[in-house]
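ARCHIVE CARD
CATEGORY: sequence design from structure
SOURCE FIELD: tokenized fold
FIELD CONTENT:
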């Protein structure tokens, strides 16, 4: 039974779910922030109404007769803010006038009060509980109960003072600080949500890319898993169908070419039999040589097609052990092939196909140059580089790009009598690339030829 659209795993559904969960988590975090955020979560000093309340009391007390100011100040007291008025030259007025204050705090206080006062006062002071002035007797607060009070005092036109005391801080950070915090939290949350959402969307695509990459390593047996969102499943299904069609085409091509090569043996046999009736020995010799060459080409083609059609599975094997075994085999035959590299290193690939590749390269070096040195170097990214170096004449530079083409031969170094039809390097390149690597040929500056094989890291 087909599931409803909103229940099916799609990229759109994943995006909607991710955004919905992100919004829900955002609301929860905001609630926790306002519950446990302390002063960070409290409103700004302007929004808390502190400044407007203080400004209104200062205007009222300043406009009242001197005899009424003390009573008006006391009447304006609330549970959060206390007010007091001190006559000119009173002890408290002198203490406020002669105290030491921070110019920055004073300018910041005036910036807040300026919109609520008609003119700048003759003197203004702003300080906190840690200032010695806060210990003066007669201030309208209990020091033992309020240890984080804030004070603001203004000198009126007649020299008297009005003092405002916020018993505790009930407002949050200032506007700029709040903006910086909000911007920081918003940026962090956007980055976190973006990473989560992008991961939900990119993970199926990365999985698909890994699967497509594996097709190059196991083109005959690999098949993409059709899982994940619907769109990714459709892409994987399409690629699998295309892969099956390509593989079927290759099988048909290989089977056809192998059959043609096999069927050519019969007419070649008849040609050789009829050649026995040629009276001219020289012509007979030339004919038999051509027949032998064609026979060698057919045998090489059949071997190449069999390798191409083989279905060897990849396994884990000891790559240095394989190279050492090849070197030892040729040393036993009297060819001093040397190995240089680590003693052990696991690799996942086609063991026997790799052995044919390295053996072919070593044999070519022995046949056309000198016994080579086999060097294995693990790379930082987990891949391997294998170098097979000889001290022979090398290959002309303009031929380095052609040595991997089928039936390519170098006339000077590879003649008809040495054997081979020019499919060895082609087969080697096919095997290496089917395992995800690559092979190149280079002339060494000090002389000789270097076959450089790169094998990808194990996935």
């Amino acid at each position: 039974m087909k599931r409803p659209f909103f229940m099916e795993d799609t990229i759109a559904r994943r995006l909607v779910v991710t955004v919905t969960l992100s919004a829900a988590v955002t609301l929860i975090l905001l609630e926790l922030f306002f519950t446990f955020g302390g002063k960070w979560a409290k409103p700004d000093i302007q929004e808390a109404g502190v400044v407007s309340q203080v400004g209104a009391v200062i205007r009222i007390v300043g406009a009242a007769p001197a005899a009424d100011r003390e009573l008006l100040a006391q009447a304006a007291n609330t549970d959060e803010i206390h007010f007091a008025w001190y006559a000119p030259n009173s002890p408290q007025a002198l203490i406020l006038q002669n105290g030491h204050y921070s110019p920055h705090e004073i300018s910041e206080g005036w910036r807040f009060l300026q919109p609520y006062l008609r003119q700048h006062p003759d003197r203004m002071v702003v300080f906190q509980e840690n200032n010695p002035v806060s210990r003066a007797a007669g201030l309208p607060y209990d020091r033992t109960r309020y240890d984080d009070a804030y004070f603001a005092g203004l000198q009126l036109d007649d020299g008297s003072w009005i003092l405002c005391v916020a018993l505790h801080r009930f407002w949050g950070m200032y506007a700029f600080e709040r903006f910086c915090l909000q911007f920081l939290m918003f940026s962090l949350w956007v980055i976190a949500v973006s990473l989560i959402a992008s991961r939900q969307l990119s993970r199926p695509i990365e999985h698909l890319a890994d699967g497509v990459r594996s097709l190059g390593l196991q083109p005959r047996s690999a098949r993409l898993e059709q899982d994940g969102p619907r769109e990714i499943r459709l892409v994987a299904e399409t690629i699998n169908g295309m892969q099956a069609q390509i593989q079927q085409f290759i099988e048909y091509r290989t089977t056809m070419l192998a059959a043609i090569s096999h069927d050519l043996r019969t007419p070649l046999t008849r040609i050789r039999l009829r050649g026995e009736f040629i009276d001219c020995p020289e012509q007979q010799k030339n004919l038999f040589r051509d027949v032998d060459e064609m026979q060698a080409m057919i045998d090489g083609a059949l071997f190449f097609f069999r390798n191409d059609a083989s279905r060897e599975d990849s396994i884990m094997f000891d790559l240095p052990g394989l190279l050492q075994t090849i070197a030892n085999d040729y040393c036993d035959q009297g060819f001093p092939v040397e190995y240089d590299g680590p003693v052990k290193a696991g690799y996942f690939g086609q063991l026997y196909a790799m052995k044919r590749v390295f053996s072919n390269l070593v044999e070519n070096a022995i046949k056309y140059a000198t016994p080579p040195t086999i060097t294995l170097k693990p790379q930082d990214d987990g891949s391997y580089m294998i170098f097979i170096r000889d001290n022979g004449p090398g290959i002309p530079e303009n031929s380095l790009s052609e040595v991997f083409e089928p039936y390519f031969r170098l006339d000077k170094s590879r003649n008809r009598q040495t054997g081979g039809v020019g499919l060895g390097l082609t087969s080697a390149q096919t095997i290496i690339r089917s395992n995800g690597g690559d092979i190149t040929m280079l002339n060494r500056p000090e002389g000789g030829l270097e076959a450089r094989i790169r094998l990808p890291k194990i996935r």
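CARD ANNOTATION: Residues 412-418 have pLDDT under 50 and may be disordered. Residues 175-217 form the longest helix (43 residues).
SHELF: design records, drawer C
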